[in-house]
Amino acid sequence: MTRIDFYLLTSDQPQTRLAYACRLAHKAWAQGHRVYLHCADPAQAEELDQLLWSFKPDAFLPHALHSEHPDEAVVCGTGDDPTPHNDLLINLAQTTPGFFSRFTRLAEIVVEHDDIRVPARERFRFYRDRGYPLKSHQIRTAG
């Protein structure tokens, strides 16, 4: 059964969410995990793809857009088929991905902004009502 972690950031800035997704993806990749970053739309996937190149100047994170290189260890995607990924899913969309249960872990990153927080609460209830193991992490952020 998929383990689901909610990362609750103290920031109210939606951009902080993307920066934290980069940090989380880098940490997971460094531990040998494969990461699928599920984005709300192609524009967000492109933005995240660019951010992954620059979020940490002293580190390298091999990544790609799923539509271009689906076999890369870390990919940004928007579609309904994250093949071949099934390890860590980082959900940046405002809906529950229909394929989330094929992943070992799911990370939901939430900031204190109603456009993000309210749908995240709905997803939390959705997962809880279906018996998924949930864990919340309070994360202090600068912005």
Give your account of this protein's structure.
- There is one protein chain.
- The protein has helices at 14-30, 42-54, 114-129; strands at residues 3-9, 35-38, 64-65, 74-77, 88-91, 105-110, 134-139.
- The longest helix is centred in the N-terminal third of the chain and has 17 residues, at 14-30.
- It has a seven-stranded parallel sheet with strand order 3-4-2-5-6-1-7, with helices on both faces.
- 29% of the residues are buried.
- It is an alpha/beta fold and 143 residues long.
- The protein is globular, with a radius of gyration of 14 Å.
Could you tell me how far the N terminus lies from the C terminus, measured between alpha carbons in angstroms?
Answer: 34 Å
Biggest sheet, strands in spatial order? Answer: 3-4-2-5-6-1-7
What is the global morphology?
globular
Percentage beta strand: 15-25%
Structural class: alpha/beta
How big is the Rg?
A: 14 Å
- Total domains, how many? 1
The top level CATH class name: Alpha Beta
- CATH 4th-level superfamily: DNA polymerase III subunit chi
Q: Enumerate the spans where pLDDT stays under 50 for 5 or more consecutive residues.
A: none
CATH architecture: 3-Layer(aba) Sandwich
- What is the H/E order? EHEHEEEEHE
Mean pLDDT: 95
Major pleated sheet:
7 strands, parallel
- How many distinct beta strands? 7
**Helicity, in percent?**
25-40%
Protein name: DNA polymerase III, chi subunit
Pfam family, one: DNA_pol3_chi
GO molecular function, one term: DNA-directed DNA polymerase activity
GO biological process, one term: DNA replication
